[in-house]
């Protein structure tokens, strides 16, 4: 039955402890005396004790009510420490921020963001994990992950995606002969095998394949890897091709292939759960990134 107690019940107890008088307690809480009487009746039912008994000048706490008085104060004190989002102090907030990110966004975005957090939110710790795909919305709803940095096409339904900037592709290879050509056409390009980067899930289909299909062409996919870092490692050891984000350039040991036509870029986004929309830390991250990157 104790779980049926509500904050307004505890505030009523507090007022009765203070004034030992129903009228004065009602005035303090800005409610009617009848409201105090009804709340007291309800608390008696919940707790199975009279709590306060009438005296010649007001009411007096029962032994049980006196015993729980310190606990009532403790609960109310903790409750009163709860602050609105805009009242939280950045230098005192202690929290662990869990960020899920691709290796690309870890390299381009996260390092700078951590520096900003250390300066403005010194007691916030950051945990960075590789990009998640399975049950991402549920994990964010349950608070296991706070922020996700990825591309727009990988954001599942139920999350808010804030665009940060548009990234463009470079077609790269270790094949010097191919890279030395001028304006390689798409039909020529699809004759060569590709590496695709598929973070979170292994797939032999890359983000550019739908665009190639619109041109009436199909790429040959020879290898799928989870990160752009590993894509570069395999590119250096083979004659395979890959589309890599331009912000990662220059690519040591690799060469850009000049294309007659290139696939469109993609939006890099910050995604978060709607429950975090008023979180001051999330608001800080959004504001910082808005000032740091231009779309």
Protein described:
By secondary structure, the chain is of the alpha/beta class. It has 3 domains: 2-82, Orthogonal Bundle (Arc Repressor Mutant, subunit A), CATH 1.10.10; 95-166 and 268-292, D-Maltodextrin-Binding Protein, domain 2 (3-Layer(aba) Sandwich); 169-264, 3-Layer(aba) Sandwich (D-Maltodextrin-Binding Protein, domain 2), CATH 3.40.190.10. Helices cover 39% and strands 21% of the residues. The chain contains 11 helices and 12 strands. It has helices at residues 7-19, 22-29, 33-47, 63-80, 103-120, 136-141, 176-179, 186-189, 209-214, 228-236, 280-292; strands at residues 52-54, 59-61, 95-101, 124-130, 147-151, 160-167, 169-173, 193-197, 220-225, 241-245, 255-256, 266-272. The protein has a 5-stranded mixed β-sheet, covered by helices on one side. The longest helix is centred in the N-terminal third of the chain and has 18 residues, at 63-80.
